[in-house]
Design brief:
alpha/beta, five-stranded parallel beta sheet, two-stranded antiparallel sheet, 23 helices
Length: 474
């Protein structure tokens, strides 16, 4: 009796953790095609609190499981808010993970996490130490003080930080200091009076001052490009096009999924005209991704969803389609033999558009008929043409044609289903894993064995512990 209870407890724990990790791989608290942003945020927040309350150590170690930045930030905040509940034997690991992950977050997210500490009234000794260490590790603290000035000031005040050099006067001096020895601080002061000095500032800071000086948008965009980050150039692309300003974007620096999304945002005419350039850029980005995360596969078939729901939402435009396109190039580069099967067949994936009903059954049949070693399905899982067509195909295939599972089949879902705290699955006969970016595919293929239930809770615990060790060792 006790043995049965223990086994059931472990099974529930494994299922809870797999569900949570899958959610953290795909959910960003933003609107999706089938659900609004509020429902997403409420659902994922409940899931965080549930796992934190029941499995604190494994909740902490999820930071190292390859989850997205949104959920890493939420875990950090919830751990810092509940530090008194951390067992003494786990405090060092928890603190090290928080500091390591916070430092690795994109700058804007890292500063937002620290500002949230103030907004949520989290001001214990550990949170102050984390804030202090984060500032000390920054590569260019003066640049951060200018770009994130209001956040920096709020964080420094909340955590009672001692600031070196002219930082204190710059943030709190109310312009009493007439001249700054720090060049960037002095440029910022001058830019309040001189329109020319605006172009020496970070883009987000210069943008507001350009409005103050009455600088026309097209003039500002044409002259500020040297100060823009890659993401800022991408965000400004639409307004630059309206102003007939060409923004120089180095495609070679874009991550694979970001590059795919950028290409899909362009008109069909542009994609046709520059097809060779975009194709080479995607192939190079895929090759670079595989250098960082090696993945060697044999005969691989991809079932890729380009139905209308892959257009995403106003907050995540074309995100599911972008993940599918990026995964196409990644699998092509990683496989000895490769074939793609789209829900709407195409001769040129660069010209793909989100349209039509979701018919996963037809491309799945073609993929299985091709006799691949691995079939990867990229879809939100909401098939309706016909409903449950792919599900029935998978059931029959597993039961009658491939009961020994010689062909591996994995469903990668880039969309979180807020209604039941999970990902919409195609069939219980194959694993479903979350996939935020195509670059995460190597990690997700390794995680799939936990999603399909073939691994135990002990295996999952060992997997997370190994990921923590790898992260903390650099």
């Amino acid at each position: 009796m006790n043995m049965n209870w223990t086994n059931q407890h472990q099974q529930v724990a494994r299922e809870d953790l797999v569900m949570f990790i899958n959610a953290c791989l795909s959910c960003t608290g933003q609107r999706e095609f089938y659900s609004d942003g509020y429902g997403q945020r409420v659902s994922i927040d409940f899931l965080h609190d549930y796992i934190l309350g029941n499995y604190r150590l494994l909740y902490t170690r999820t930071l190292a499981a390859g989850i997205n930045h949104f959920n890493q930030a939420q875990i950090i905040l919830k751990l810092l808010a509940t530090g008194k509940h951390t067992p003494p034997e786990h405090r060092q690991e928890e603190g090290a993970l928080i500091a390591t992950v916070l430092a690795a977050l994109p700058s804007q997210r890292g500063w937002e996490v620290l500002q949230q500490l103030r907004k949520r009234g989290i001001n214990n000794r550990r949170s102050r130490a984390i804030a202090r260490d984060y500032l000390q590790q920054r590569r260019d603290i003066n640049f951060d003080a200018v770009k994130y000035r209001s956040k920096f000031r709020a964080i420094a005040s909340h955590a009672h930080l001692t600031l070196p050099g002219e930082l204190g006067n710059f943030l709190f001096g109310k312009w009493k200091q007439q001249v700054y020895q720090t060049e960037l601080f002095e440029t910022f002061r001058q830019a309040h009076h001189s329109a020319e000095a605006v172009y020496q500032l970070p883009f987000t800071v210069a943008e507001g001052l350009a409005v103050k000086h009455g600088i026309k948008r097209e003039v500002f965009l044409s002259r500020i490009q040297d100060q823009m980050t890659l993401n800022e150039k991408l965000r400004s692309q639409t307004s630059a096009n309206r102003a007939e300003i060409e923004i120089d974007i180095n495609l070679g620096r874009l991550p694979l999924t970001r590059l795919a999304l950028y290409i899909l945002s362009l008109s069909l005419d542009t994609r046709k005209q520059q097809g060779d350039i975009f194709n080479q850029a995607l192939e190079k980005s895929a090759a670079f991704t595989l250098k960082k995360s090696p993945l060697k596969l044999g005969r691989v078939a991809a079932v890729l969803d380009c139905s209308y729901s892959s257009s995403g939402s106003t907050e995540k435009r074309r995100r599911p389609l972008g993940v599918a396109l990026a995964t196409h190039y990644l699998l092509k580069a990683a496989s000895q033999e490769y074939q793609a099967f789209w829900t709407i067949p195409t001769n040129d994936p660069l010209l793909i558009l989100p349209r039509g009903q979701t018919d996963l059954a037809t491309p799945l049949l073609d993929a299985l008929d091709w006799s691949a070693d691995l079939v990867v399905i990229i879809s939100d899982g909401w098939e309706n043409d016909p409903p449950n067509g792919a599900s029935e195909i998978l059931r029959i295939y597993r039961q009658r044609l491939d009961p020994k599972q010689k062909t591996s089949i994995v469903h990668c879902n880039p969309v979180y289903n807020a209604d039941d705290f999970s990902l919409h699955t195609l069939s219980p006969t194959i694993p479903t894993v979350g996939l935020r970016d195509a670059e995460d595919l190597p990690t997700m293929l390794g995680f799939a064995r936990f999603a399909e239930g073939s691994a135990s809770l002990a295996d999952l615990e060992e997997y997370l512990a190994a990921r923590v060790k790898q992260m903390l060792s650099g």
